């Protein structure tokens, strides 16, 4: 069966065909970046999941290897689901993953490389003393999965976190081991939260509160850290994270009061982004985040296309210098794909104006723009009694709804008459009392495609949400920046140097390939200045699986 290329990304990670979901076991080992991922060998829908495996020297070009693990033993015959890799001194990399047995019970297993001295780690063995953790009678055997990368503590124990739930309470269990074979569950979960549902794909790692340039490995034990706990909520398909304190003695994590724990929490990405996982890249001393973006197309069209799912461009993760949130930025390696280049400086855009960015390929591009806004005098008042969530606000105040300061930003994947377009933009409000800015960032897929839904069920409809998040900036210098990576059916946008990130998946009918256009626009009464705009064609990697 052939694959339809019309909306297929050019520079995002993807196998040649079929369905992919969660990134698994990302690691840097002996000069190679490894990425494993959930893969259906048989089609473009979820099912028959194995761990596919690719390696890269630069996070840009990828070489597919044979699958690392697939269902073969009693403890994983019903599925080889998500997990992680830990490099264990003296043993090499070890996979922790969730196996499903024939009765659909989930359990944690491990796998070891046949030859840890081989940088490619081609062959994996599942020792017979698996599983390493089974659900006991107090636990939910159909919600017990996705072990994190383990870390070693001074008390001589390895620890890993496993996601779960009991009724509606989301839970992160913690397990300890001295030898990486015998694991014992700690008496208390490391954290849990009522009414959040299953915690899929937990991720737990430290960030420095003094060094805002380098990442930390999991075993780092300085006082100058906070911890991050991220979970993926299967009910909403959103992730959220908190910042907090990890108490090693009690094996408990306590979120800071100012990062909400639950549905309204902070997100790595406010758009189509799920089951993410970080790893520490000791080659460059950074923590790197991988995340999966599902299709937003109808299931029928996924099958017709012959492929579904991509991994987003890996992002570095750091604590923001305000210590209240994380910031994300595409890994620098991706810039090696930048080709033809155009720039624009000090260009004023009046209300209602739209300026075309010409001279690059708008369907496969990297665009960075810094706006100078100046005074916020005309900004709309942000009513603190507003209980609207960002995506609801964006729904009411779309890119065409005139404001004071904004909406302004990019119009991506557009036809010249705006029959189809995906706008990515800011709208700057101000607080009634102290006049501090309250910035809304939107990536609005509603006008992205003329394509009709094929029926009333979710699987027959296109998913075109008005994704949005607030951007925590004071705009003291009157500026705000936006970067978008545009790749046919993907728009990955970074507001204010990665303070707020939003990814959309869109499927235009007309605004495709050479017929896609890119614009900068302003629909606010206050004019704004494009202080600088740099845009590049993005080339395809020389090798993509
Ligand atoms: N996907 C895996 C599970 C995980 C879910 C199965 C998250 O291990 O909880 O493919 O997308």
Structure notes:
- The chain has 545 residues and is mainly β.
- It has 2 domains: 25-332, 5 Propeller (Tachylectin-2, Chain A); 338-538, Exo-inulinase, domain 1 (Jelly Rolls).
- 3% of the residues lie in helices and 47% in strands.
- The chain contains 2 helices and 37 strands.
- It has helices at 299-305, 390-396, and strands at 18-29, 32-40, 49-56, 63-69, 79-88, 92-100, 106-113, 124-125, 144-145, 151-152, 158-166, 169-177, 184-185, 191-193, 199-208, 225-233, 238-247, 252-255, 274-281, 286-293, 307-308, 310-311, 315-319, 326-330, 338-349, 353-356, 364-372, 380-382, 405-414, 422-431, 437-444, 466-471, 479-487, 490-495, 500-505, 517-522, 528-538.
- Strands 26, 28, 29, 30, 31, 32 and 36 form a 7-stranded mixed sheet that branches. Strands 9, 10, 11, 12, 13 and 14 form a 6-stranded antiparallel sheet that branches.
- The longest helix has 7 residues, at 299-305.
- The protein is globular.
- The two termini are 18 Å apart.
- 51% of the residues are buried.
- The model has no long low-confidence stretch (mean pLDDT 97).
- 2,5-dideoxy-2,5-imino-D-mannitol (DQQ) binds at residues 21-22, 38, 49, 81-82, 98, 145-146, 200-201, 274-275.
Give a brief rundown of this model.
This protein is an all-beta fold. The chain is built from two helices and 37 strands. The protein folds into two domains: 25-332, Tachylectin-2, Chain A; 338-538, Sandwich (Jelly Rolls), CATH 2.60.120.
Relevant terms:
6-stranded antiparallel sheet; 2 domains; single chain; 37 strands; Jelly Rolls; 545 residues
Structural class call reads mainly beta
Q: What is the CATH T-level topology of the largest domain?
A: Tachylectin-2, Chain A
Determine the N-to-C terminus distance: 18 Å
Main sheet: strands, sense, barrel: 7 strands, mixed
């Amino acid at each position: 069966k052939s694959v339809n290329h019309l909306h297929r990304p050019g520079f995002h990670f993807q196998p040649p065909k079929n369905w992919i979901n969660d990134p698994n076991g990302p690691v840097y080992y002996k000069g190679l970046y490894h990425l494993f991922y959930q893969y259906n060998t048989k089609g473009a829908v979820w099912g028959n999941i194995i761990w596919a495996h690719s390696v890269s020297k630069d996070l840009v070009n990828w070489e597919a290897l044979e699958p690392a693990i697939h269902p073969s033993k009693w403890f994983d015959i019903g599925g080889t689901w998500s997990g992680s890799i830990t490099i264990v001194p003296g043993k090499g990399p070890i996979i922790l993953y969730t196996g499903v047995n024939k009765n659909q019970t989930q359990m944690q297993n491990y796998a070891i490389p046949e030859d840890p001295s081989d940088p490619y780690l081609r062959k994996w063995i599942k020792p017979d003393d698996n599983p390493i953790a089974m659900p006991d009678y107090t636990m939910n055997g159909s919600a017990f999965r996705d072990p994190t990368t383990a870390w070693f503590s001074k008390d001589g124990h390895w620890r890993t976190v496993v996601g779960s739930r009991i009724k509606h309470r989301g839970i992160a269990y913690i397990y300890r081991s001295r030898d990486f074979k015998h694991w014992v569950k700690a008496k208390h979960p490391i954290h849990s939260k009522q009414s959040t549902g299953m915690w899929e794909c937990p991720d737990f790692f430290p960030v420095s509160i003094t060094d805002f340039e380098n990442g930390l490995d999991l075993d780092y034990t300085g006082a100058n850290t906070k911890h991050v706990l991220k979970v993926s909520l299967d009910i909403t398909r959103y992730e959220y994270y908190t910042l907090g304190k990890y108490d090693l003695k009690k094996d408990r994590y306590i979120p800071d009061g100012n990062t909400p724990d639950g549905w309204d929490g902070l997100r790595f990405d406010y758009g189509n982004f799920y089951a993410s996982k970080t790893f520490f890249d000791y080659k460059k001393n950074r923590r790197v985040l991988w995340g999966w973006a599902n299709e937003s197309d109808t299931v029928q069209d996924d099958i017709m296309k012959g492929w579904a799912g991509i991994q987003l461009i890996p992002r570095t993760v750091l604590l923001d210098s305000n210590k209240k949130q994380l910031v994300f930025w595409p890994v620098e390696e991706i810039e090696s794909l930048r080709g033809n280049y155009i720039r624009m400086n000090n260009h004023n855009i009046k209300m209602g104006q739209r300026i075309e960015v010409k001279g690059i390929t708008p369907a496969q591009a990297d665009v960075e723009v810094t706006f100078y806004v100046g005074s916020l005098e005309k900004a709309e008042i942000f009513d603190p009694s507003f209980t609207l969530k960002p995506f609801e606000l964006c729904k009411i105040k779309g890119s065409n709804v005139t404001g004071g300061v904004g909406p302004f930003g990019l119009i991506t994947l557009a036809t010249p008459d705006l029959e189809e377009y995906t706008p990515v933009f800011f709208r700057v409000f101000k607080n009634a009392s102290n006049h501090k800015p309250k910035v809304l960032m939107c990536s609005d897929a509603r006008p992205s495609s003329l394509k009709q839904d094929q029926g009333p069920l979710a699987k027959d409809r296109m998913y075109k949400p008005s994704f949005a998040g607030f951007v925590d900036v004071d705009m003291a210098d009157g500026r705000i920046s936006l970067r978008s990576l545009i790749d046919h059916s993907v728009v990955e946008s970074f507001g204010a140097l990665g303070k707020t990130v939003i990814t959309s998946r869109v499927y235009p009918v007309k605004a495709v390939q050479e017929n896609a256009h890119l614009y900068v626009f302003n629909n606010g009464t206050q004019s704004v200045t494009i202080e600088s705009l740099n845009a590049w064609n993005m080339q395809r990697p020389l090798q993509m699986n």
